[in-house]
Amino acid sequence: MTKGTCHSVDFYCTIHIKRGAWLQHRAQTLALWIMFVMTVPQFADVLAPIPTTHNPTAFFVVSLLALASNVALAAYQFHRIRKLKLNPPKDQLYADTKAYQRIVEENK
After folding, report:
1. What does the alpha-carbon distance between residue 86 and residue 84 come to, in Å, rounded to a whole number?
2. Contact 93, 81 (CB under 8 A)
3. pLDDT in single tens digits along all 108 residues of the chain
């Protein structure tokens, strides 16, 4: 597999998708790549050997920031659900926002 092949898959996935869904599909593409690399780490070590830190303090700080941001997002979403009396499996959480409405209009 050549170095350009990975980028061509990302390029293909980003070109043939509607504008509003680009970020979601990009995240799915990257998630598949990460799942593969985490399953077969020797493959990535051959393509791009990158030295990593094994500093437990750095790992803890990054993990704590990720956990805090996820807790904050969950709290914000629960606040919106409760405030607007939404049913998450049936209702869109952000349907009343301008960005959501603009994307819906662009993709009609």
Report:
1. 6
2. yes
3. 444 444 445 555 445 556 667 788 888 999 999 999 889 888 877 877 777 778 899 999 999 999 999 999 999 999 999 999 999 899 988 999 999 999 889 888
Contact 19, 103 (CB under 8 A): yes
* Cα dihedral value 75, 35, 9, 49, nearest 10: 110
pTM equals 0.54
Q: Max CA-CA distance within the chain?
A: 51
What length is written for the chain?
A: 108
Reading the block at residue 48, the tokens are 């791009």
Determine the Cα–Cα distance for residues 31 and 35; give it in Å rounded to an integer: 6
88, two tokens: 């998450």
Q: 17, exposed or middle or buried, with CB in 10 Å at 0-12, 13-18, 19+?
A: middle
